[in-house]
Amino acid sequence: MKLIFLGPPGAGKGTIASRICEEFEIPHISTGDLFRKAIKEQTDLGKKVQAIIESGDLVPDSLTVELVKERLDKQDVEKGYILDGFPRTIVQADALSEFSSVDAVINFTITDEQVIKRLAGRRLCKACGAGYHVDTIKPKKEGICDKCGGELIIRPDDAPEAIKNRLSVYYKSTEPLIDYYSNKNLIKDVDGSGAVDKVIKDTRAIIASM
Ligand code: AP5
Known about the structure:
Layout: E1 2-6, H1 13-24, E2 28-30, H2 31-40, H3 44-55, H4 61-72, E3 81-84, H5 90-99, E4 104-109, H6 112-120, E5 122-125, E6 131-133, E7 152-153, H7 160-174, H8 176-182, E8 187-191, H9 196-209
Residues 7, 9-15, 30-32, 35, 52-53, 56-59, 64, 85-88, 92, 118-119, 122, 131-133, 136-137, 157, 166, 195-196, 199 line the site of BIS(adenosine)-5'-pentaphosphate.
């Protein structure tokens, strides 16, 4: 099962991917998470991409494709995987087609107003990366991760200016992938605006129908 999760920032790609991957025991490959890990560890890659990510721009295609290609060379992808946030440009999609097949592209739909509400209220565990929301997915104890007790923080690219930029980058560079994959009969739309359990149920139904 090789899936791509597509959708605007804050559509819930990461939240749904982590639950589905746990259930199907396949790796959740999020380019955003891989970049954030590199930044945290201050690797050469992390230093190169930090300012780009904080502003909400896209990391150059060449660096991103190389990162995913290396990740897909690992043994754990044998049963399949979910690519969350990759590809994000036509160049990346063309590159991916040279080293992996794709079974379906799940496109999570959500309005711009919901994007802003979700990203403005998102909190992330500094230690394990688990995601929360101040209104909808609250931790048991405010500011503390339920899973590991780590501190919950705001992502630098969830600042209002960066959110605005990420949305415009999405419409310019990523939305064209909907047509790209529709032409290959791979797009499956899921309404990402409902409650998490409903979105998971709809995603599962698509997987079951594949
Ligand atoms: P990335 O981390 O991929 O960011 P993104 O695509 O903008 O997506 P998000 O992580 O913001 O949102 P999401 O859809 O995963 O939503 P989430 O589940 O967190 O990328 C970050 C940056 O890295 C990019 O801007 C770029 O610079 C770089 N990058 C990454 N990939 C790249 C690539 N391929 N090429 C070039 N550059 C790349 O949910 C959001 C919030 O809503 C959370 O608080 C969550 O708890 C809540 N929530 C989720 N679902 C629901 C629901 N159904 N109901 C209520 N609340 C919900």
